[in-house]
Amino acid sequence: MYTTLISAADLKAILNQPNLVIIDSSHVLSDLEKGRRDYQKSHILTAQFAHLDDDLSGEIIAGETGRHPFPSIEKITQKLSSWGIDEQVQVIVYDQGHGGIAARLWFMLKWLGHDNVAVLDGGWKNWEALGYPTSEEIPVVTPKVFTPKPNANLLVDVQFMEQNIDNQALTYIDSRTANRYRGEEEPIDPIAGHIPSALNAPWPNNLGPDGLFLEKTALAQRFLDLLKGQPKGQAIFYCGSGVTACHNLLAMHHVGVTSAKLFPGSWSEWIVDSNREVVVEK
Asked: What distances in angstroms separate CA 153 from CA 66, 110, 169, 236, 261, one per listed residue?
C-alpha cells in the first residue's frame, strides 16, 4: 500500500497489479488545455486524465470563492467512481513532474477517506526519462462505486480563518513562492501580499535539484524549523487557490505528520472581501 509517494521504479513493478488506477493530472495555468493535449499524445500505461478545472474544482462564484474551489462531494464522487476507484483500489497520481497538481487529487482522496493514494515522485518527466512504459491509448474503464467518508477535520473555511486570525495557537503557512508571499509581484491574483501572521514555506522547496522530493530527514527538518515548537496539528496551509498547498501537506504526511489542515479557498478567496486584512512585506 502506497499512501504518500511512490518511486517510478516501484510503480513500474506494480503496473500489472489488479486494483490499480493511475491518474495523470498534468496542468499548466498559462495554457489550460496543455495537460490534456500532452496526455493524449502520451501517458503512463493505463493512465486516465483528470483536469484541474473540470474534474478537481467546483463552480467559481464571483465575490465568494477562490479560483479553484473544491467540487461538491457528489461531483467528485461521481468522477472517482467513473475512474474505477473504490475502497480496494490503489490510486497513483502524477503530473508533468513537480507534483504540485497531483498533490491536489492526493489530498482530496485523503479528505474523502481513501488512504491508498500516492503521488509519483518526479512525475511524467522522470518516468519518460527512464524509458518506462507509455501509451497513446485511452483506457476503457469499468466504473466502480466510490463511497466518500469526508474528514471535516482536514479543512478550514474562510469564516474559520476570519474568526481565528489572531489565534496564536494556530500557525498559518503560505505555500507560494517567496516573492508572491511578500507581495513583490502577483502574476495571477488581483491583489498581492499574504494573510496576516502567515509564515512562508514555498512548496517547490520540498524538491531537490533532481526534481524529486527531498529525503525524509530533510523534509522533517524543514517543517520542524518552520513550526518552531508549535503543535504540528495546528498548522493550516494555503496557497493561491488551494492546489499547491497540498504539496506541503503531502510532504508532511510523508514524514508522519497527518493532522495539518488546508484552507482550500486560499489567497484567492481571502481577497474577494476588501475588509479582510492583507500584508505586504516592505
From this structure: 20, 11, 16, 11, 7
The identity of residue 184, as a single letter, is E
pTM of the entire predicted model: 0.96
Sheet of 235-238, strands arranged across: 199-200, 171-174, 235-238, 261-262
Q: How far apart are CA 30 and CA 93, in angstroms?
A: 21
Dump pLDDT digits (tens) for 70-101. Answer: 999 999 999 999 999 999 999 999 999 999 99
Helix runs in 28-171, H state only? 34-41, 73-82, 102-111, 123-129, 158-163
- Residue range 152-270 in CATH 3.40.250.10: yes
Domain ranges of the chain: 5-135, 152-270
Residue 226 Cα to chain centre, angstroms: 20
| Active-site residue list | 239
Check: CB of residue 281 under 8 Å from CB of residue 182. yes
Q: CATH top-level class for 5-135?
A: alpha beta
